[in-house]
């Protein structure tokens, strides 16, 4: 099954002094590990750093995370709207205020996850889901999106906890997610950095640092 990749949106973080980094990829790709490594590196450089995640980056987000990942089965449209609701609140309460004061925000998942999971794998339409989430976030896109690419079977083998609703989906579902993430990266090479998630974490981290270093805001003296 093929899915159309929508064109890039015009929204970005250009109006803010801070920088916005998102980490994307399938389950088990190491997003949280890379987020924490980036946080330590950026803090050592003297930046204010906000490490967050979606869903669940706010108190309301924690409630929505439990509902969408561990609650009763949801139909695809309800699932997509819950993710968009979490994202709208997260951006309003956490991301935009941090960027406005010059912080570097690093999030474990952002809107590309919704485009890949709900838009492509749930077959709700990549363009429709992207438009919904751009509306929810007032067009906010990351300065850099790091895609940690991993075969879904390898990711499943890394899982330590009981699988959530999305993790329990079929191998075909997760293959579609991976394929669409890669299609998104192909469509926006200036925003995406695609890395092999089977590499040692420090090697992946070094590649992210190399790409991000030139994009960092200048520190006040």
Automatic annotation (TrEMBL):
Q: Which residues does the record give as ATP binding sites?
A: 25-32
Q: Where is the Thymidylate kinase-like domain?
A: 23-207
Q: Which keywords does this chain's UniProt record carry?
A: ATP-binding, Kinase, Nucleotide biosynthesis, Nucleotide-binding, Transferase
**Cross-referenced CDD domains, in alphabetical order?**
TMPK (cd01672)
What superkingdom heads the lineage?
Bacteria
The protein's matches in Pfam families, at most eight in alphabetical order, are given as: Thymidylate_kin
Molecular function (Gene Ontology), one example:
dTMP kinase activity
Q: Which family does it belong to?
A: Belongs to the thymidylate kinase family.
The job of this chain, per UniProt, is described as: Phosphorylation of dTMP to form dTDP in both de novo and salvage pathways of dTTP synthesis.
State the name under which the record lists this protein.
Thymidylate kinase
